[in-house]
């Protein structure tokens, strides 16, 4: 295993870091929503290397059903509370400090079934435009079956069976 190909070819470095203060408001969802998401590092910010998101889930807020991705891996790091993670075989109660990595093709799901708030980091590699997925997913209620299928296909979101 070696380092990736060189991307930066300058001699003196650049001022190009991205800082996000802790108090920054979520990008998706509000106080009354079951899930709020703060974009920490988007596909654009990282030049496609990864996407990192902070997910804040209300008590009993549920989550997505079992799914998989063909082009991106997804990793979960629990910051607080208890998040139920499906690792393709079984559901586990993940708590602060627990981590789950799901390679491309791996079945997975998550939910907050507890009576308390839960927070986690989601990491997608390589980067993908998940922001559009997060923003438009709640608006699919009136979409046709064909529109939903196209949306999920465009966002590398597949459901078994």
Account of the 3D structure:
This protein has about 160 residues and is mostly beta strands. The protein has one domain: Jelly Rolls (Sandwich). It has helices at about 130-135, 145-155, and strands at about 35-40, 50-55, 75-80, 80-85, 90-95, 100, 110, 120-125. A five-stranded antiparallel β-sheet has the order 1-2-8-3-6, with helices on one face. Strands 5-4-7 form a three-stranded antiparallel β-sheet, with no helix packed on it. The radius of gyration is 17 Å and the shape is globular. The mean pLDDT is about 95.
Quick rundown:
The protein has 161 residues and is mainly β. It contains 2 helices and 8 strands. Strand 4 and strand 5 form a beta hairpin.
For this structure, the CATH topology is Jelly Rolls
Query: What spatial order of strands do you see in the largest sheet?
Result: 1-2-8-3-6
Overall CATH architecture: Sandwich
Span of the ends, CA to CA: 36 Å
Overall domain count: 1
- Summed over residues and divided by their number, the pLDDT gives a mean of 94
Fraction of residues in β-strands: 25-35%
Biggest β-sheet strands, sense, barrel: 5 strands, antiparallel
Question: Quick one: CATH class?
Answer: Mainly Beta
- Name the CATH superfamily assignment: Jelly Rolls
State Rg.
17 Å
Identify the overall geometry. Answer: globular
How much helical structure, as a percent, in the residues? 10-25%
Total number of beta strands: 8
**Alpha-beta content class:** mainly beta
N-to-C SSE string, H for helix and E for strand: EEEEEEEEHH
Spans where pLDDT lies below 50 across 5 or more residues? none
Continuous helix count:
2
């Amino acid at each position: 295993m070696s380092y990736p190909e060189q991307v930066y070819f300058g001699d003196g470095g650049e001022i190009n870091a991205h800082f996000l203060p802790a108090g920054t408001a979520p990008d998706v969802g509000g106080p009354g929503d079951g899930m709020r998401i703060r974009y920490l590092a988007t596909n654009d910010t990282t030049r496609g290397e990864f996407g990192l998101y902070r997910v804040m889930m209300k008590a009993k807020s549920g989550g997505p059903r079992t799914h998989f991705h063909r082009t991106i891996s997804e990793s979960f790091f629990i910051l607080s509370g208890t998040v139920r993670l499906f690792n393709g075989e079984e559901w586990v109660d993940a708590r602060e400090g627990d981590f789950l990595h799901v390679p491309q093709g791996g079945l997975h799901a998550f939910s907050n079934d507890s009576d308390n708030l839960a927070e986690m980091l989601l990491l997608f590699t390589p980067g993908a435009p998940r922001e559009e997925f997060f923003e438009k997913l709640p608006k699919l209620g009136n979409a046709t079956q064909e529109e939903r299928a196209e949306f999920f296909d465009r966002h590398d979101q597949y459901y078994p069976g």
